[in-house]
């Protein structure tokens, strides 16, 4: 999807858990090629919104629709660079798909990858295996050839391993390739999780508090990785983050949630100046 | 490695029939345990239904051969496929169940399958057991004198194939998706793993091996009755993978051999010390049972990763010998 | 920052205040091999708020676990040194005993009881002081009116911030004299972080509660604390009054990081930035 | 009608005993997260220890019961201390398997010392039959219902309402956090195992009195699984409803349909329930947030 | 065989494998049966064995599990046993093809009619009336006792052992034109009450309950029957028709009937004397000698006689030789204990006897109703 095009549209999204309304009529739109931050107080529904986007939660009503270029998806051809901005949009076969009716694995197949608020890695697998799972949607799953190993199964493993290695290089994870992720330090695990999502070569990356629990130094590193991913791989990113400094610095657009409702939307500066946002989220201290 | 291979190959020429029969039983168990480990150890879906699945494989193959006159290899393949299919049916509830709920659902399948095996007169023609004709492969009929040796060769080849194919499976995406489901199913689905498909595939693949083990059991023991497939058998197989090492193909093999030989070992010991402690000899089945339980406990407490881990440590030690570390 | 309450830093000379918790030169080893604390000493004077800062993996949480007796549950062990609380040696005491004596820990990552309701969580918190649980409960609800609104909800379904409040409220239920907080702002919105620290300061001012708090968010922590410690690799590297620490150039560089102050560097400008010098 | 009443009362009594045995299981599960496959063997140990005190040592019944309780507590605490405590932090499967191993060991011990032959015991509950609505009903069955109801009530109150009950549930959720609020995790663990063993003792002795003291008690114990799963693993009321349902359904199927089918009917009912409600009738869905 | 135990002029002990149930589903009667066999061997060896050669009876518990029995059988085979004493119907039937292949004479506690087909089971020998014959005798007696018309419910162990006589009983009713309404139910193993099955018996209108099962569950059923005020008469076949049933059920056993081909010790037959002498020597209370013990004793006796005949004939102790001895040696005397008193096999019948006795429980003892009944 060329930059600047609408990529993801959330309309009238409502999500209820029993008596609790986590999201109420949320409308927002993510443009291709941006880093779009979602902020808001705890319990505002940010993670829930992300979960709706990735198919983990089924909303009570409303929809999330993803637009994608037909050729980009599902054929394992995402190793080519994303369509250049100059490409003629009309010549592309752009389709739209409602994510809200899809199970999570189908959403992933459309090129939406994510990380989780509390690291959800495959603890007993190595860093490489975790990242190879990121390649899952691009691989053919054939039990019989897998059992035989020699031939197609082996060739396929090698081909995908090459792509994973690029991600390993990008995120500087070389030293940890064969380590079971469960034993790694928190910061590294966060990076592996990012890597796993990247390995999927997504067109949209959803990150839920990738810097939570990090100190200043690690945050800087993580911010750098996110920017690199955004710039080098041309991925659009939806980012939940509480640290306003990070949000201000790296995001192009910000949506603010409070009690499940959108209370602000715009450029970081616009949002910072929005009195409702200051009152509900930032507090007087941050506004000064 | 080479030494081991030589030992395994000359085994049939040095062991007598009794020990060869044990070896054969262990090889069949190894195939079944590999299957169970795929489901339990690698995919994290607990199954107490192993006994019932073995029964499906065994009776299918026996009936296809004896009543429909199919060649044994064909009926064995038929048994593998049917058992895999039954696995998928039983796996369906697994899609929504977790932990103990799943364990008990598989316990239910064990009970129901066993009930059918006991009560469905068609299976044994009302006799309560089923005779299976001597194995004949491509016109070659095993002879009585070399029965155990010939079976040993057949089973050895099949067990090695089973171990290899299972190992290969976990070098590829399919196997990885099983492990992903085990470690973190939500994340797995967010990475594009179809949980339904992965779990059902795991049930099918696992049961394929179990069906093979069941079919071999039928042809090897030449007689089938429901008592070979009780809940105790399910537990026996779980013990194999616990003792051998969960989530390890080699572990399943070690575990199968160990658990098959355990009662023999207990009996030998009982023969020796029985004079001094008569209760051990007089209550042998109880003692065997108790030792079995104790083995599980001891392994879980002291080496939860099983014989496989112990073996690795030994290899490391010798690898570094004479320098430790 | 408005969060700093009346009980401003420097309300009393720290040296004069008797020490409530004192950790003397302890060593902590996990799994019999991993040496994490290497001779750490620390004093928490009665009635003060003390902040413990340090980078990831420095051993901050381990220090609090050692003080609250949780190490054995993680195969950890204090191999040398001693810990005393209110003049009593508690080095070998088990965790529940310490709670009875007024030492309460609010763990990193909240750790509420997910299947219990909010009110059951609080009641469980008052386990050691069952008789007065009713009154304490009212007190906690007063401090956290939000919890009162959610009392019947299952804790596992609360959002992170809500859970953090619950965790602090639960810790208060045991009527501690020393409250230890492990990264209370983890994953919380700025407003809430402010709120929580304001609450901490208020508790301290109103009830004289002594607080030991670990924080990544050094700026906020130092703004309410009287005294601060900075640790690296299992040792205390620096200790001073909070104000003084906040002005220390090293602290500024490593803990206050980019952003915040005027003339800050943007996250966009940071290239792969590696720590040039360590404290050691 | 007469058959119906007989089956009803017998079904209820078995259901009540089952519920009691299952409650012990649930107690352990809720407090320690351990799935105890040896609960059937706890019934067995209960019945045989009482038998030993009452018949072999010829103690008076009250004393014999006390001995039973003592043995139950000791077994419960020892099992917790030496078998389950080292298993903290291991996977579900490992914990299930360790209790399966324990089950083998316990039943093997009983078999070694008492053999497999049934032993008869002088009656404890009154014998004889009464006629209710035209059905002949053994009196001891009625007594069994009463005893189990009382014990069930006491345990339920303890778990739901008492301070220790809340502590047990807190420990089940997060052991470290429980320690930070001053709950002694070890004490709670020991307490729940001991309570489970005591409830198994009462269930086992009641059962042994209306049948015989024999190894078969274990098979009866296996039924706690359909019971707890059906009711919902962590629900006390669910356990009671589950127990009574299984008791009654089994009895009616065996009386009106096929006694052989009755053996698997609990499992069929269970599967049906799970298809509709994967967490049992009263069970709560596990909290899974990401 | 050249040397070794099988050789005619060897003086080594004669190995016989015993597959016993001590702890399994039928252990209540399996235990005294096994003790009876071993007691006989002990006595025989003490008396100088067979022509000076002792019998080495290797006895192991298989807990009534077929796979265990197979495994034991393989061990006995590798220990060069010359004959096998088995136990249950399931395992005996399961092993018979192997036994035939390995040419090993095989007797067992199972009197299933299936095993009498000499073509199919050339090495199996049945020392007493088959379960089916016992069932027939029971049905004849019921027809007589009830004056013609009767309802009968056959309750059986849920196994080949249990179902073995059920079909034959039904066929017998047709064949003989008996006016008997026949239903059958499997008795679930490990059940805590038989209320369900009894209410089915009730609603089928049966006045007689024939039980083909071991003593303990039968006794429990009798107790349940009494507690629920049922008035049916129980007729126990072979393995529940014994003292264990009478004591296990207590006063609930009174008046029930037993079909038992082996004479209980209380009937004081000449064949019991050896057993009583043995009991006396070993400090056993004669009152503790159960009919299953007697049965085991004589099962071993018959096997020993076959071996003696083989050795007397100067032949090697091979399976075929022993088989031939048993088939050709003529009647074997049991001192009035089994059936009419003697057991005889031939090349086309391995049915050692067809007659059985009928007893009633009176004051906790087995009282004779009729002797040497043949259907
Ligand atoms: N699986 C669930 N079941 C029930 N309620 C839920 C569930 N997930 C979230 N909620 C509720 O929905 C609301 C929004 O939660 P959510 O996790 O989306 O907040 P958030 O904005 O991500 O907060 P935080 O910044 O603390 O992560 C909360 O009140 C929470 O209790
Ligand atoms: N249970 C444990 N077993 C083994 N090592 C541990 C354990 N807990 C902590 N460690 C190690 O001890 C060191 C200090 O950990 P600790 O959690 O105390 O750091 P911290 O300062 O609290 O870090 P953070 O800011 O990430 O919370 C780390 O290197 C960690 O890997
Ligand atoms: Mg969130
Ligand atoms: Mg920490």
From TrEMBL, chain A:
SUPFAM superfamilies named among the record's database cross-references: P-loop containing nucleoside triphosphate hydrolases (SSF52540)
SMART domains linked: AAA
Residue ranges crossing the lipid bilayer per the database entry: none
UniProt entry tagged with the keyword Transport: yes
Keyword Nucleotide-binding among record annotations: yes
Cellular component terms (Gene Ontology): plasma membrane
GO molecular function, one term: ATP binding
Protein name: Branched-chain amino acid transport ATP-binding protein LivG (TC 3.A.1.4.1)
Domain ABC transporter span(s) in chain numbering: 8-284
Keywords: ATP-binding, Nucleotide-binding, Transport
From TrEMBL, chain B:
Topology in the lipid bilayer: Multi-pass membrane protein
Gene Ontology annotations for the cellular component aspect, listed alphabetically: plasma membrane
Compartment(s): Cell membrane
Transmembrane portions of the chain: 18-39, 46-64, 70-92, 99-117, 151-170, 235-266
Record keywords: Cell membrane, Membrane, Transmembrane, Transmembrane helix
Top-level lineage group: Bacteria
Pfam family, one: BPD_transp_2
Molecular function terms, GO-annotated: branched-chain amino acid transmembrane transporter activity
Protein name as it appears in the record: Branched-chain amino acid transport system permease protein LivM (TC 3.A.1.4.1)
Organism of origin: Brevibacterium yomogidense
TrEMBL record, chain C:
Family: Belongs to the ABC transporter superfamily.
Pfam families according to UniProt: ABC_tran
Alphabetic keyword roster: Amino-acid transport, ATP-binding, Nucleotide-binding, Transport
Molecular functions per Gene Ontology: ATP binding; ATP hydrolysis activity; branched-chain amino acid transmembrane transporter activity
Annotated SUPFAM superfamilies: P-loop containing nucleoside triphosphate hydrolases
Swiss-Prot/TrEMBL GO biological process terms: L-amino acid transport
InterPro entries per record: AAA+_ATPase, ABC_transporter-like_ATP-bd, ABC_transporter-like_CS, BCAA_Transport_ATP-bd_LivF, P-loop_NTPase
Domain ABC transporter: 21-258
Protein's recorded name: Branched-chain amino acid transport ATP-binding protein LivF (TC 3.A.1.4.1)
TrEMBL record, chain D:
Main location: membrane
Keyword Transport appears in the UniProt entry: yes
Subcellular localization, as worded in the UniProt entry: Cell membrane
Alphabetical UniProt keywords: Amino-acid transport, Cell membrane, Membrane, Transmembrane, Transmembrane helix, Transport
GO biological process, one term: amino acid transport
Stretches that traverse the bilayer: 6-29, 63-83, 95-114, 142-159, 188-210, 264-282
MF terms in GO: transmembrane transporter activity
Topology relative to the membrane: Multi-pass membrane protein
A Pfam cross-reference name: BPD_transp_2
Family matches, as InterPro entries: ABC_transp_permease, BCAA_transport_permease
GO CC term, one of those recorded: plasma membrane
Family: Belongs to the binding-protein-dependent transport system permease family. LivHM subfamily.
PANTHER family (UniProt xref): ABC TRANSPORTER PERMEASE PROTEIN, BRANCHED-CHAIN AMINO ACID TRANSPORT SYSTEM PERMEASE PROTEIN LIVH
Protein's name according to its UniProt entry: High-affinity branched-chain amino acid transport system permease protein LivH (TC 3.A.1.4.1)
Organism per entry: Brevibacterium yomogidense
Lineage: Bacteria, Bacillati, Actinomycetota, Actinomycetes, Micrococcales
């Amino acid at each position: 999807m060329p930059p600047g095009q609408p990529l993801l549209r959330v309309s009238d999204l409502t999500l209820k858990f029993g008596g609790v309304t986590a999201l109420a009529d949320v409308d927002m739109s993510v443009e291709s090629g941006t880093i779009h931050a979602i902020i808001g107080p705890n319990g505002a529904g940010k993670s829930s919104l992300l979960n709706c986007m990735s198919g983990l939660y089924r909303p009570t009503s409303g929809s999330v629709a993803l637009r994608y270029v037909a050729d980009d998806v599902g054929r394992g051809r995402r190793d080519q660079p994303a369509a250049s901005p100059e490409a003629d949009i009309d010549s592309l076969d752009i389709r739209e798909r409602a994510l809200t009716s899809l199970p999570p694995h189908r959403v992933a197949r459309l090129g939406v990858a994510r990380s989780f608020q509390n690291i959800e890695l495959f603890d007993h697998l190595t860093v490489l295996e975790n990242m190879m799972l990121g390649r899952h949607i691009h691989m053919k799953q054939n039990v019989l050839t897998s059992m035989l190993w020699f031939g197609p199964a082996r060739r396929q493993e090698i081909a995908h391993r090459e792509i994973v290695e690029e991600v390993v290089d990008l995120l500087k994870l070389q030293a940890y390739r064969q380590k079971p992720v469960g034993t790694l330090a928190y910061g590294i695990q966060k990076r592996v999780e990012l890597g796993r999502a990247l390995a999927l070569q997504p067109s949209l990356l959803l990150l839920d508090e990738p810097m939570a629990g990090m100190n200043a130094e690690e945050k800087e590193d993580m911010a750098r990785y996110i920017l690199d991913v955004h710039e080098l791989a041309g991925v659009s990113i939806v980012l939940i983050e509480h640290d306003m400094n990070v949000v201000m610095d790296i995001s192009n657009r910000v949506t603010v949630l409070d009690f499940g409702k959108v209370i602000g939307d715009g450029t970081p500066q616009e949002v910072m100046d929005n009195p409702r946002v200051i009152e509900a989220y930032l507090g007087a201290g941050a506004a000064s | 490695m080479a030494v081991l291979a030589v030992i395994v190959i000359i085994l049939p020429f040095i062991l007598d029939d009794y020990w060869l029969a044990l070896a054969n039983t262990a090889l069949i168990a190894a195939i079944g345990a590999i299957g169970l480990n795929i489901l339990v150890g690698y995919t994290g879906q607990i199954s107490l239904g192993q006994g019932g699945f073995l029964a499906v494989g065994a009776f299918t193959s026996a009936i296809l051969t004896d009543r429909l006159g199919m060649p044994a290899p064909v009926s064995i393949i038929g048994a593998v496929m049917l058992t895999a299919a039954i696995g998928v049916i039983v796996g369906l509830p697994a899609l929504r169940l977790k932990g103990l709920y799943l364990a008990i659902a598989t316990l239910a399948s064990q009970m129901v399958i066993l009930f059918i095996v006991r009560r469905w007169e068609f299976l044994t023609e009302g006799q309560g057991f089923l005779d299976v004709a001597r194995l004949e492969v491509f016109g070659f009929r095993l002879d009585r004198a070399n029965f155990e040796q010939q079976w040993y060769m057949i089973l050895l080849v099949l067990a090695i194939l089973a171990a290899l194919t299972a190992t290969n499976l976990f070098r590829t995406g399919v196997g990885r998706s099983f492990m992903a489901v085990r470690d973190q199913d939500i994340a797995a689905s967010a990475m594009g793993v179809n949980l339904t498909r992965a779990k059902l595939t795991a049930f099918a693949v696992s049961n394929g091996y179990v069906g093979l083990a069941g079919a071999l059991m039928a042809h090897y023991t030449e007689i089938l009755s429901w008592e070979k497939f009780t809940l105790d058998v399910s537990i026996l197989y779980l013990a194999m993978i616990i003792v051998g090492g969960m989530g390890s193909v080699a572990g399943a093999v070690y575990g199968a051999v160990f658990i098959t030989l355990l009662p023999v070992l207990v009996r030998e010991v009982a023969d020796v010390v029985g004079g001094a402690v008569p209760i051990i000899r007089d209550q042998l089945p109880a003692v065997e049972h108790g030792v079995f339980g104790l083995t599980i406990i001891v392994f879980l407490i002291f080496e939860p990763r099983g014989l496989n881990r112990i073996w690795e440590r030994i290899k490391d030690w010798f690898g570094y010998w004479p320098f430790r570390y | 920052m408005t969060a700093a309450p009346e009980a401003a830093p420097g309300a009393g000379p720290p040296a004069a205040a008797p020490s409530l918790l004192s950790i003397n030169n302890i060593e902590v080893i996990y799994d019999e091999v991993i040496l994490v604390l290497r001779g750490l000493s620390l004093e928490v004077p009665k009635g003060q708020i003390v902040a413990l800062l340090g980078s990831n993996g420095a051993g901050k949480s381990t220090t609090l676990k050692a003080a609250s007796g949780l190490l054995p549950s993680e195969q950890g062990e204090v191999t040398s040194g001693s810990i005393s609380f209110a003049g009593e040696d508690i080095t070998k005491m088990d965790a529940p005993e310490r709670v009875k004596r007024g030492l309460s820990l609010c763990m990193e990552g909240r750790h509420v009881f997910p299947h219990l309701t909010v009110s059951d969580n609080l009641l469980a918190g008052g386990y050691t002081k069952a008789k007065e649980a009713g009154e304490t409960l009212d007190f906690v609800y007063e401090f956290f009116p939000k919890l009162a609104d959610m009392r019947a909800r299952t804790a596992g379904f609360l959002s992170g911030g809500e859970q953090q409040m619950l965790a602090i409220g639960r810790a208060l239920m045991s009527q501690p004299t020393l409250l230890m907080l492990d990264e209370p702002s983890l994953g919380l919105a700025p407003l809430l972080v402010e709120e929580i620290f304001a609450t901490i300061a208020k508790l301290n001012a109103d009830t004289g509660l002594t607080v030991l708090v670990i924080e990544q968010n050094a700026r906020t922590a130092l703004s309410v604390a009287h005294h601060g410690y900075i640790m690296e690799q299992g040792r205390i590297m620096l200790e001073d009054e909070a104000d003084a620490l906040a002005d220390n150039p090293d602290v500024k560089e490593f803990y206050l990081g980019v952003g915040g102050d005027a003339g800050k560097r943007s996250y966009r400008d940071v290239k792969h930035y590696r720590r040039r010098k360590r404290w050691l | 009608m007469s058959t119906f009443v007989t089956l009803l009362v017998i079904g209820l009594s078995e259901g009540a005993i089952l519920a009691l045995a299952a409650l012990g299981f649930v107690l352990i599960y809720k407090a320690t997260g351990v799935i105890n496959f040896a609960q059937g063997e706890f019934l067995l140990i209960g019945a045989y220890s009482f038998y030993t005190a009452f018949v072999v040592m010829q103690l008076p019944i009250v004393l014999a019961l006390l001995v039973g309780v003592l043995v139950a507590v000791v077994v419960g605490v020892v099992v917790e201390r030496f078998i389950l405590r080292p298993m903290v932090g291991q996977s579900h499967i490992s914990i299930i398997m360790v209790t399966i191993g324990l089950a083998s060991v316990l039943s093997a011990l009983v078999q070694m010392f008492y053999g497999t032959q049934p032993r008869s015991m002088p009656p404890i509950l009154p014998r004889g039959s009464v006629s209710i609505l035209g059905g002949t009903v053994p009196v001891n069955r009625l007594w069994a219902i009463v005893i189990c109801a009382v014990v069930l009530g006491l345990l339920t109150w303890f778990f739901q309402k008492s301070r220790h009950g809340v502590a047990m549930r807190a420990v089940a959720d997060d052991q470290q956090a429980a320690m930070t609020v001053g709950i002694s995790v070890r004490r709670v663990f020991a307490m729940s195992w001991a309570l489970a063993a005591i409830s198994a003792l009462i269930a086992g002795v009641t059962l042994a009195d209306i049948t015989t003291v024999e190894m078969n008690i274990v098979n009866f114990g296996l039924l706690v699984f359909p019971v707890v799963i059906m009711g919902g693993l962590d629900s006390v009321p669910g356990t009671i409803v589950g127990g009574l349902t299984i008791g009654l359904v089994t009895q009616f199927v065996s009386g009106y349909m096929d006694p052989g089918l009755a053996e698997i009917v609990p499992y069929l009912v269970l599967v049906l329930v799970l298809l509709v409600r994967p967490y049992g009738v009263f069970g709560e869905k596990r909290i899974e947030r990401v | 065989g050249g040397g070794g135990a099988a050789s005619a002029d060897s003086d080594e002990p004669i190995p016989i494998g015993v597959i016993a149930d001590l702890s399994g589903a039928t252990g209540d009667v399996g235990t005294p049966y096994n003790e009876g066999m071993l007691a006989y061997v002990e006595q025989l060896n003490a008396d100088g064995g067979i022509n000076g050669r002792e019998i080495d009876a290797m006895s192991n518990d298989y807990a009534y599990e077929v796979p265990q029995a197979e495994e034991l059988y393989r061990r006995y085979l590798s220990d060069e046993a010359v004959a096998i004493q088995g136990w249950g119907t399931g395992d005996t039937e399961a092993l018979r093809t192997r036994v035939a292949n390995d040419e090993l004479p095989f007797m067992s506690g199972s009197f299933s009619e299936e095993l009498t087909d000499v073509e199919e089971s050339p090495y199996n020998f049945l020392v007493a009336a088959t379960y089916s014959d016992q069932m027939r005798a029971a049905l004849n007696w019921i027809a007589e006792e009830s004056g013609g018309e009767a309802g009968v419910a056959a309750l059986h162990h849920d196994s080949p052992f249990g179902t073995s006589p059920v079909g034959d009983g039904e066929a017998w009713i047709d064949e003989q034109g008996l006016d008997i309404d026949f239903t059958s139910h499997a008795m679930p193993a490990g059940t805590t009450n038989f209320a369900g099955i009894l209410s089915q018996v009730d609603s089928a209108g049966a006045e007689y309950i024939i039980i083909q099962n071991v003593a303990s569950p039968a006794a429990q059923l009798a107790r349940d029957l009494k507690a629920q005020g049922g008035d049916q008469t129980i007729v126990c076949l072979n393995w529940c028709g014994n003292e264990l049933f009478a004591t296990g059920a207590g006063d609930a056993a009174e008046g029930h009937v037993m079909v038992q081909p082996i004479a209980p010790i209380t009937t004081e037959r000449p064949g019991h004397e050896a057993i009583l002498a043995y009991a006396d020597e070993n400090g056993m209370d004669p009152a503790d000698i159960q009919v299953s013990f007697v049965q085991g004793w004589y099962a071993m006796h018959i096997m020993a006689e076959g071996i003696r005949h083989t050795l007397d004939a100067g032949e090697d102790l091979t399976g075929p030789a022993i088989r031939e001895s048993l088939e050709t040696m003529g009647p074997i005397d049991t001192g009035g204990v089994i059936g009419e008193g003697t057991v005889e096999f031939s090349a086309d019948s391995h049915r050692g006897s067809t007659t059985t006795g009928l007893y009633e429980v009176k004051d906790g003892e087995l009282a004779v109703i009729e002797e040497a009944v043949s259907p």
